[in-house]
Structures are given as structure tokens and as C-alpha cells.
Amino acid sequence: MTGSFLKRNPSVPVVLGLLLLGTLAVTAMAASGGLSTSFVKTLGMTLCLALAALAMDLVWGYAGILSLGNIAFFALGGYMIGMWLMTARTEIIVAESLAGQAIPATPQEIRDAVGGQIFGVVGSADFPAIWAFSGSLPAQLALVVLVPSLLALVFGWLAFRSRVTGVYLSILTQAMTLALALYLFQNDAGLRGNNGLSGLQNLPGLSAVPQATVSLWFLWGSALALGLGYLLCAWVVSGKFGAILRGIRDNEARVRFLGYPVEGYKLAVFTLSAAITGIAGALYYPQAGIVNPAEMMPIASIYLAVWVAIGGRGRLYGAVIGAIAVSLISSFFTSGKLPDLDLGPLRLVWVDWWLVMLGFSFVLVTLLAPKGLGGLVDLWTQRRRPARHGADLGPDQGSFREEEAKA
């Protein structure tokens, strides 16, 4: 089984090997002082974005569902882990401040003080209902997966059973994301409105651990999550389930005519994509340090699609390549370290022009290289069709043959 899986997915050992070597190299250079802590964090966040792009390719590249709502699942994962980080860290601070009192504070007094610290910025001191499990790490880790998955399950069930497809489905997913962002901007939403959740880079109980070490921990965790996510996605798309997904992408009506429950397959892959994206967000935002509703605005939703398109839709390694390449190039051009170019009547400020360059690159890739950067990998490896044996079992070119059907 393992041999056949790797034979169908030759990119798996390559991607995992490069990921391992890259992580070890970054760790060694960071330990020797060759890389700054901020750059290590950038690399860790880039791996999280690659995991989110991988989930996006699963629904768009293989099932043909252009979801512009995956960024909502990404931010929700960050909110879920951020709630625990803020609660646990604030509890430690409050407990230390009350430790010198002659009469020990009661648990309710401590909770009220914690609530005042967290929600005082929005004029409240009470824990909203959605913070009920914020004091439990296992519960919040479960919610990292459950909340995005539940949202995807409900939304997908309503959309797919109504047979909404194409651009209409994309608009609906974008509307869902925008509606959720606008709701979270309100102070009474329970997540501190426009302020969001901040200070997430400070892990509770580890204040003595330098950020250089914490950044490496998150880099390893992000690399592990990306590796496991790649394995899972490769397994999903390599078997019968993946073949049906590609059939739905190419001709949904024909797959439905053959008797397959198309809506069930689409709902399953949409929910799985949401769960993976939520995990990516839970690893990303502690490295970024803050999560707020602005992360869900429409432009952020489009980024995931752009990364997958530039990397090569329908290729798992293409999604990873596209996300990593665009993310690192974006960090380079928006870092403020590049000198502006004075072209006479036009002054080229890289920070302002980066989005124009990204949009232009997207158009060029779409028109001139629809296979994206992943297509370059195909050319480099000179991928060819496998040797075919036996008589055709179907009338079309590329049908299974007798010997292949027996394998």
C-alpha cells in the first residue's frame, strides 16, 4: 500500500525531504546567529500560509470549488487559540499582582480581574459566552478544528444542496467572509472588535524563554503541520475519492448521472479544507502576534486563490510553491528596505506598488502559463505518461487497460 501510494504521488518524498532539510538548515543558521528572529518568524508564517494554500488547492484545484471564504476559516483558527493565549497569560499576570494580599483572592475575583484586563479596552469586564472554554487548552485546540469545520459544514450543506456552483458560489463564500468580519468588528461580538486579540507571541508561563527559541518552536510546528497536511491531501486525492473529485471538477453533471452523491463529496472536501485551514491559522497568528477582523476582509480571501493560481492549480506541490514564493517575495518588497526609484514623473515606491506587481503576475500566469510554477517542475522532471499495457477497457484515449485494472 505504501509503495503504491508513493508511486502515485512521487512528489510526497521530495516535498517532505525538502521541508525537512530546509527546517534543519534554518535551525542551524538561526542557532549560529545567521538569521534574525523576525526572519525565522516570517519563514514559520510562510509555512502556515503554504498549508492554507494546500487546503485551498484541495477544494479549487481538485473539486473545482473556488472558495473565497477559506480566509475566514484561517482567521477563526487564530481566534480560537488566541482566546486561550490571552486568558492563560492574563491569569498569570493577575495572580502575580494579587499574590501579596493578606486575604487570598477568590476564583471569582481573579476571573473578574482577568475579564477587566482583557475586555476593558471595549468597556466591559465580563466574559462573553463564546469565551466559556478559553481557560482550557485542550478545549480550545478542539475548537480550532471544530469551529471552522462546523461553519463550512453548515454553509456547504446549504449551498451544495441548492446546487449553487461557479461564480455564484464564489460570491456567496466571499459574502460569508465579509459578513463574519463585519460582525467581529462590533465590540459586543466578544472578540474585542477592531482591537482583536494581541500579544499572542507571549506564551503563558514561558516569559523567560527568549523569542528566538519560541520562533524556532513554531517553525518546527509549522513544518510538521505542513508535512502532515501534504501527506493527508496527497492520500485524499490519490485514490477513488480523488478521482471522483476531479470528475466533479471536469464534468459535474456526468458524475451525478453515474449515481455518485456529488453534494456529499463536495461537502466532505469543503469541510476537510476548512479544518486544515483552521489549523494553519492557529499556528500563524501566535507568530504574527495579533489577529483582528481585518484579516478576513475581501482582499485577504483573494490572496489564497492567487497563490494557488501562480503555483499551479491541481498540483499540491504547486500550491506550496506558489504560497512560499509569493509570501517571501511580498515580505521582501514590503519590508521597506528597498530604495524607492525616482523615474521622473513617476516615483516607484515598492511598498505601494507590490500589489500592482502581484496582480500583473497573476494575469500573466493565467494567460501565458496556466499550469503556473508547478508547470516548470513538470518540465524540469520531464514527466511522461506511464507505460500502458493490455487492451483498452473503454472507448476513450487514456482509459484503463486490462493489466492496469488487475493491479
The mean pLDDT is 84
What pattern of helices and strands is seen along the backbone?
Answer: HHHHHHHEHHHEHHEEHHH
Largest sheet: 2 strands, antiparallel
CA-based shape: globular
Distance between the termini: 12 Å
Low-confidence runs (pLDDT<50, min 5 residues)? 391-407
Tell me how many strands there are.
4
Structural class: mainly alpha
Describe this structure in words.
This protein has 407 residues and is an all-alpha fold. It contains 15 helices and four strands. 68% of the residues lie in helices and 2% in strands. Helix 3 packs parallel to helix 8 and helix 3 crosses helix 11. A hairpin with a 2-residue loop joins strand 3 and strand 4. It has a two-stranded antiparallel sheet. The protein has a two-stranded antiparallel sheet with strand order 3-4.
Task: Lay out the secondary structure.
Blueprint: H1 2-8, H2 11-31, H3 37-62, H4 70-97, H5 107-119, H6 137-161, H7 166-184, E1 197-198, H8 211-238, H9 240-257, H10 262-288, E2 290-291, H11 298-311, H12 316-333, E3 341-343, E4 346-348, H13 350-368, H14 372-381, H15 402-406
Helix pairs in contact: 2-8, 3-8, 3-10, 3-11, 3-12, 4-5, 4-6, 4-10, 6-10, 8-9, 8-10, 11-12, 11-14, 12-14
